[in-house]
């Protein structure tokens, strides 16, 4: 299946969180340059992987809805970073 295009996600955060995130990004050493968007995506994936949120996804058949739209996800795989391009 073709890789889906990225969409914009907007959120407001407090100044203290903004300061900490912007301060730590330059120190994050994972073999790539990190952006605020990268941090937000990582945080949202971790939130979706929490057992209570994953249960909601399963109970409400949200992955089936995703597939009906021609989309897939690997966030529930054992190591989703392996599949990132």
How many strands appear in the DSSP assignment?
Answer: 0
Q: Structural class, from secondary structure content?
A: mainly alpha
How many helices does DSSP assign?
4
Q: What is the terminal-to-terminal distance?
A: 14 Å
DSSP helix fraction: 40-55%
Secondary-structure element order, as H and E? HHHH
Radius of gyration: 15 Å
The dominant shape is elongated
Low-confidence stretches: none
What's the overall average pLDDT, rounded? 88
Q: Which sheet architecture does the biggest sheet show? A: none
- Beta-strand share of residues: under 5%
Explain how this protein is built:
The chain has 85 residues and is an all-alpha fold. 47% of the residues lie in helices and 0% in strands. The chain is built from 4 helices and no strands. The protein has helices at residues 15-24, 36-49, 51-59, 62-68. The mean pLDDT is 88.
List the helices and strands and how they pair.
Layout: H1 15-24, H2 36-49, H3 51-59, H4 62-68
